[in-house]
Amino acid sequence: MPEAIVTRILRLPGYRVYQHVFDEGAQTVTCWVRPIGPAPYYCCPTCGISTQATAGSPTERRVRDLPWGPWQVWLVVEIQTVACRRCGRHRERVPFLAGKAHGTRRLEAAVAQECRDAPVRRVAARWGLAAETVRLMDQRTLQCWAAGRPRAPLRQLGVDEIFLGKATKFLTVVSNLETREPLWLGTERKRETLDRFFAEALPPRLRRAVRAVCVDMWEPFRLSLQAHLPRARIVYDKFHVLKHANAAVDETRRAEFFRKGGRLRGLVRGKRWLLLTRWHHLDRDQRQTLTDLFAVNRRLAKAYLFRDQLTQLWTYTYEANARRFLTTWLRALRWQRLPAFTKFARLLLTHRDGILAYCHARIPFGVVEAINGNIRAMLRRGRGYRDHAYLLLKVQRATADSRRLRAA
Fold first, then answer.
1. How far apart are CA 67 and CA 297, in angstroms?
2. What is d(CA 26, CA 38) in angstroms, rounded to the nearest whole number?
3. How far from chain centre, in Å, is Cα 346?
4. What is the DSSP letter of 282?
5. Which residues are registered as beta bridge partners of 235?
6. Is 184 exposed, middle or buried (0-12, 13-18, 19+ CB in 10 A)?
7. Nearest to 95 by CA among 81, 83, 105, 80
8. How far is it, in rounded angstroms, from Cα 274 to Cα 394?
9. Considering only CA atoms, which of 75, 69, 134, 145 is closest in space to residue 104?
10. Are 367 and 391 in contact (CB under 8 A)?
11. Residue 16 and residue 14: Cα distance in Å, rounded?
12. What gap in Å lies between CA 260 and CA 253, rounded to an integer?
């Protein structure tokens, strides 16, 4: 096959093939390429200026390219040492190579495209590469994508944590609630963890734009946010508040199970998930089961009613009305003989201002849980990630792709 045809197949702008070899046994194609022209210009990798000044003779570098069907394609590229007046001597920048990588840019793009939907080890087995090589290819591609994408202003911040296991325990997730994507990941859930986010990813000039922060009722997070974002409103997550309410209902159920005996204890047994489900999510048979239970146990009926009434708190627009509703709800708990809800009421009183701040900053609470769900799905698909920066780039790219598909 003539070298001109191989050059047209490879499509390497500014370079031509001057020799190629087909190995039938190994099913490989090796192509030797060099710049076009008798006196070509070479690009300095530091300043980007092209020059004809060189130092010494060129060296050859062997890299892998996209395959031609079952044939593996290898390129032997001449790399020249550039004598730049500003930067000194450096190896020239080749447009179709990614730094010192052992593959072309289009090969890395194809590998990274498959890494979006499959684990790294599976992609490595398909391409005949090492798993670490595939991971580095995917990471370089994601870093180039992240460097070239536009940055949206940060106005609504979300802070939450994910439990990973006994070894790493917690992973703190900081997200942008408007773009619905994570911004930063850090190990543990201490105040120092969130302080590190502000030091690394959010300089003081960008903190002024933050208007509201959605966070759970974890004291170290609150202290860090008050220190770095004194003007932003701290809004406590509705789902974490209702999680404590469900815990109070479950604690009441356990107390009633051990307080009752005989047939009444049998009525309470096995009703945990029914008691933790909202009334409008139950079917007719499940509602009848709970009605029979509430007819013989008034404490469970009151606990279930108080939990469902509390959800009305986030429907108010004005803080005075929400505060009046919360005060009335707390007063109704006084003589109900529900110790678990008494403890929960003290928690609400301690964090009342943060709960009522939702009237001023209408934060989408479900976004935080959705982002955590995306991170957990990525962890399951990749069988875990030790490099959290790589995990962050993967989730950001998946979020951007899904948002683009929805817009289309």
1. 71
2. 34
3. 34
4. S
5. 214
6. buried
7. 105
8. 38
9. 75
10. no
11. 7
12. 11
